[in-house]
Amino acid sequence: MTLLRQGGYYLVVGLLQLLLDWCVFVAVTALGMPVVPGNVIGRACAMLLGFWLNGRYTFADAGRQRLGWKRFGRFIALWAAITALSTVLVAAADQALGLRYAWLAKPLVEGGLAGLSFLLMRRLVFR
């Protein structure tokens, strides 16, 4: 039951993160920022929201919040690795197809990485 509850919350939080990440990414790159820093900024905004919501709701134990500096350190390390992979994939879409297709590819890239992120967050960060 815990896995189903966590999966449901993670999905909702992830959709909110994806929306925020994508909106920031499109806005800053439309204003002329290069794709690589634009992707990192979008993911950083979503990361802060996701750490708080996932720690407070998704992976909380019976009302006990799962936040703190120790978890935040593990979270940042995992986030950096996934952000690097995301950035490589979004930048490749930009190089091969152009900025507008990178905007379209971004939600697909992030959606594909969400499952991996859930498993790693559950095992390495919010354990």
UniProtKB/TrEMBL annotation:
GO BP annotations listed: polysaccharide biosynthetic process
Domain GtrA/DPMS transmembrane: 10-126
Membrane topology type: Multi-pass membrane protein
Keyword Membrane on entry: yes
Keywords: Membrane, Transmembrane, Transmembrane helix
Subcellular localization(s) per the UniProt record: Membrane
Residues annotated as transmembrane: 7-28, 40-60, 72-93, 99-121
Recorded GO CC terms: plasma membrane
Pfam families attached to this UniProt entry: GtrA_DPMS_TM (PF04138)
Entry annotated with the keyword Aminoacyl-tRNA synthetase: no
Assigned protein family: Belongs to the GtrA family.
Full protein name: Membrane protein
Organism: Stenotrophomonas chelatiphaga
